[in-house]
What we know:
By secondary structure, this protein is of the alpha+beta class. The protein contains 4 helices and 10 strands, in the order E-E-H-E-E-E-E-E-H-E-E-E-H-H.
Amino acid sequence: MNKExxxxxxxxxxxxxxxxxxxxxxxxxxxxxxxxxxxxxxxxIYNTKPREYLRVRQEGNETRLEYHPKSVLNKKGEKLYSPxxxxxxxxxxxxxxxxxxxxxxxxxxxxxxxxxxxxEDLIFCLDKVEGxxxxxxxxxxxxxxxxxxxxxxxxxxxxxxxxxYAKEKQKNYFSQLYKK
Length: 180
């Protein structure tokens, strides 16, 4: 299990963000990701609070099954991290068939063009999400001191780079597109 600690912001300018990231960080790879979100018929995961989700991610010829149970919160109800369980799957079509046989339904598909950058402690994902726009996700590779400090470090790095973004808190892509 991974513990995902990240900050997501909606970019004011994709091009500005790309230029800054290209200049200051190391580009690791560019990919197209197609994320299919599935839910069991007996329990619509969109209605869980905090949200949990089941995802089939296609990236090139690779397929992964990912389950993200409810986020872990502190006593104040603030998100500490999101647990992530994932595994590669050798046959994505067979996986989809199995999900259907288990009475799971595909509820949304998200396509994004993602560029991965990184420094010593963080991964920066520059995303163009079809139907939503441009975003930057900054994710910690590990917990640094504690969860709160790590979350703040993610946010501080966006600000230190000088990337312009909308100040309102961003929900995950699933929540944003599902509302549409």
